[in-house]
Amino acid sequence: MKKAFVKATLLAGALALVPATTAALAEAEGNSYRTLDEFMDVFQRVRADYVDKVDDEKLIKGAIDGMLASLDPHSSFLDARDFENLRTQTDGAYGGLGLSVTMEDGAVKVIAPTKGTPADRGGIKAGDYITHLDGELIYGGTLDDAVEKMRGAPGTSIKLTIVRPGRDQPFDVSITREIIELKPVDWEVKDGIGVINIVSFSANTGADVRAAIRGIGKSLGHKPTGYILDLRSNPGGLLDEAINVSDVFLEHGEIVSQRGRQKSDIERYYAKAGDDTGGLPVIVLVDAGSASASEIVAGALQDQRRGLVMGERTFGKGSVQTLLPLSNTTALRLTTARYYTPSGRSVQEGGIEPDIRVPQLSDPDYKTRPRFRESDLRRHLINEAKVDNSILEDDSKKDPRFDTNAEALKKQGIEDFQLHYALETIGRLAKNPVQVAAHTSSKK
């Protein structure tokens, strides 16, 4: 009875994806039943004959995880613990390190540290591998177990063993946990320029950016020279908030479109009238850790010629995930669409290429540390336009304009070269607005 019920449930989902013709449905039904018979045979064999007694729920979850893992890196099943972690990350604060991580070939890999967190201050970088926690090997374990071990009471310490591509030997970093305040937007004024840093696109991020613009003007007593929108190491978040943030700087026009499986599955999102910045110069800072929602904002402002995109090529995650609740405590996170910039570009794999490429020379590991992007993930979605491999391998190109190093910059008091360069550029653009058009006119 249970076997028949499971087969019928899975078959109903499979048939929903099949073209509605009688012949196709009949063939799909036969193939699906044969495949499900094989699955149930294996399931029963494992239950009956495996050397140790196994839990049915564990087997079913393993089968679901395997099915979704065969699709792309961003589709997954969220059990009760995953659901709670997602809620914590989006709604509250927690004791931890401030890291976004993923699992790759059994190893925990850093996507990006959140700016201003213990992990960021401790020197953890995107692309690092974490092999041990307090001397205990975590290779081959689950990502959830590793995340739980890294979280803990504020004030307690944990030792991370790091393997960094480009370095010969692993090294240890001791980090003290803190309450990770999930504040998506922060701002400051530097040299009369408003610097708005967005660390994630969670609820109310658009409203917070508008509040930041008001705060900048109030602190100066007048309008700033321009704005720098810092999206570096921002892994993304909510699509709606990416649209809201883009709308802050745009008067009109398309912001982004998303296209699903069918040609008719197209949704377009447009800016409302009113530029909160009054048309002042805008620079968007990005790097290899700027992903998803960050790329939507950078792509919209670039295509609309509203601002200069500066820094490094972005991560290249051009897909949309939909959270589909399955119960009160479980859900399916499924890739349901690709998104496109106003000019029709898909950023999948290739990312957003900056208008002005500026390396982070204040990072002492800049030249030796490889960049980690969507194209490095197994089973990533392929860009339908076929990205040139040379674009994916161009991080090592040298630029004669930037012939210096971190030590020399530090002596000059420059701790963040990309931000320093952006501040200088805003100053030049304010004196000669024609330069903005010159830099952006080539972006079609």
CATH superfamily of the largest domain: 2-enoyl-CoA Hydratase, Chain A, domain 1
The major beta sheet can be summarized as: 6 strands, antiparallel
Mean pLDDT: 83
CATH structural class of the largest domain: Alpha Beta
> What percentage of the residues does DSSP assign to strands (E)?
15-25%
Structural class: alpha+beta
Write the layout of secondary structure elements.
Layout (H helix, E strand, L loop, with lengths): L1 H14 L6 H28 L6 H14 L6 E3 L1 H12 L2 E3 L2 E6 L2 E7 L4 H4 L7 E5 L2 E2 L5 H8 L6 E7 L7 E6 L1 E3 L4 E6 L2 E6 L6 H16 L6 E4 L8 H11 L4 E6 L6 E5 L11 E5 L6 H11 L4 E4 L7 E7 L5 E10 L15 E2 L31 H4 L13 H6 L5 H15 L2 H7 L4
Parallel strand pairs: 11-12, 12-15, 15-16, 16-19
Antiparallel strand pairs: 1-18, 2-9, 3-4, 4-5, 5-6, 5-7, 7-8, 10-11, 13-14, 13-18, 17-18
Explain this structure.
With 444 residues, the protein is an alpha+beta fold. The chain folds into three domains: 2-54, no CATH class; 93-180, PDZ domain (Pdz3 Domain), CATH 2.30.42; 185-440, 2-enoyl-CoA Hydratase, Chain A, domain 1, CATH 3.90.226.10. Helix content is 34%, strand content 22%. The chain contains 13 helices and 19 strands. 34% of the residues are buried.
